[in-house]
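Consider the following assembly input.
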Amino acid sequence: EDKVVQSPLSLVVHEGDTVTLNCSYEVTNFRSLLWYKQEKKAPTFLFMLTSSGIEKKSGRLSSILDKKELFSILNITATQTGDSAVYLCAVEGTTYGGATNKLIFGTGTLLAVQP
Amino acid sequence: DAGVIQSPRHEVTEMGQEVTLRCKPISGHNSLFWYRQTMMRGLELLIYFNNNVPIDDSGMPEDRFSAKMPNASFSTLKIQPSEPRDSAVYFCASTFRRANEKLFFGSGTQLSVL
């Protein structure tokens, strides 16, 4: 069965700290791994990773994928209170025959950044 | 564009009642997804439409759940009869050509079944 496991489940840090969020997966016919940020409402897209070892970066956020070990990390440096959110990892696989690019989501990591 | 629009934002109902959730995808998007989010199970895909046709409904929990997409700008998710275990946030999301990196979520419907 396809699955995505995120750790830790929750994390409390102080402003300025650096955090690393983890995502491991098992999925049939892996196509890509995506990270989303969910504040109070809808998840919003952060990164899409398809190749091992190539870092994606956006400001203080960065992410990398290891397709051999089947995991990804999301790093946030110099955290701010606005980074407080649930961070979701999702893996895109295909059903048999490639009919659906289904996203399998982890349960997320709840990050709280204290002033 | 106003984004993906869902209604209602909140729904409180009693067990056994019919519930209908509505979604208007972003104009021009041809793929639409219904997800359910709970603390225990996270975000789960319920059903996926491509060009208004249901492609994968393997995530629909049981026959009490049904979804329709009569045209490119409207979809509904119906639960009949509703049960307390259906309480969750239901998200609709849309994209073009199944591009997951361009997947946009609506603000969700918070459903509480008493």
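Chain B has a mean pLDDT of 92. Ask yourself how this observation constrains the way the partners meet.
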